[in-house]
Amino acid sequence: MDAYLGATQLSVNNSKYGGAHVIEELIAGKDIRLKAVSNGTDCYPRKEIDTLINRDSVNEIIMFNPRNAYQNYPAATNSSENTIYTYMGTLRPNFGNVTYSTSGELSPLLNDPEMRTIGIGTRIFLCGAQGFVSWNGTQFRTNGKTNEFGIPLTQDATLAVIGNCKEMDSRYIKAAYYKGYGVSLFIGIGIPIPVLDEDMAHRVSIRNSRIETIIRDYSRAGKPEISRVNYAVLQSGKVTINGTDIKTVSLSSLRRAREIAELLKNSVVNGDFQLSQMVQAFPKKSTVKPLQIRQ
Predict the structure, then answer these.
(1) Quick check: is 51 in a domain?
(2) Residues 15-56 pLDDT 10s
(3) Does residue 75 belong to any structural domain of this protein?
(4) How far is it, in rounded angstroms, from Cα 133 to Cα 131?
(5) What's the rounded Cα separation, in Å, for the pair 138 and 157?
(6) By C-alpha distance, which of 226, 188, 28 is closest to 108?
(7) Which among 15, 89, 134, 145 could disulfide-bond with 162, CB atoms 3.0 to 4.6 Å apart, if both were Cys?
(8) Domain range holding 233?
(9) Does the structure show a pLDDT above 80 at 1?
(10) pTM, whole model, 2 decimals?
């Protein structure tokens, strides 16, 4: 049989534990209890099983992620009087903090904002293994705002990726629990970007001071824009809102991003990681439509 496990699936016994934790533990080589039941058929008469499995005892463990690596996700804050709990972490009241989730100048989709070298079939670093971009990710779009340097200000592009969990390293994949929100999964992605011409050389040289994002108020409907800020300021540890310095917190690990970039560079130089040309480019025109509620 094949079993499908969602990273955000919650345990029936522990709301702080879910599919992401099982995935991390499988990759780490731990034993996982498998319990399954079925109706049984003539060709598959067994109706139940209760056993232990691990990464070595099963034939395949394939990771497929339909949405990764938002091009430039907005930062989050909270103007209300109450603490709120979101997928951007705990947001303290009265602009108590700002959280963000992009590694700035190290982010591959910001180094190749027009996706000239990244597309279906691109070989990538995925959680310590070599994986592939399998499709454009869900919520992929190309019609967002850009700043004066041509860098997207909003989510825009995303990636669907696939890889072999048996080759992955648990150092680059971590389960997480967000209070009041649920279980999620942090994964490490690295993408080599060939410098094809002067334009690409210019793109990959972009600095944090020229990469801006929007700070949104998560306590209000529609998450309205509060201000714009660049990643040099975000990574400094504080931003100024309404004349007050506000602490910033990164949900992504900049230290781990630098580590992945160095590992990927060395793998390419040593010939262990072969660059691959995409087999199909992403769509040039794509929008994200809100769900239409039908009565």
Answers:
(1) no
(2) 999 999 999 999 999 999 999 999 999 999 999 999 999 999
(3) yes
(4) 7
(5) 9
(6) 188
(7) 134
(8) 62-269
(9) no
(10) 0.93
How many domains are contained in the chain? 1
- At which residue do the structure tokens 């319990």 appear? 35
Give the amino acid at 31. D
Better pLDDT: 292 or 198: 198
Domain contains 257: yes
CA angle 166–167–171, rounded 5-degree value: 105
Token pair 């072969």: residue: 274
Catalytic positions? 43
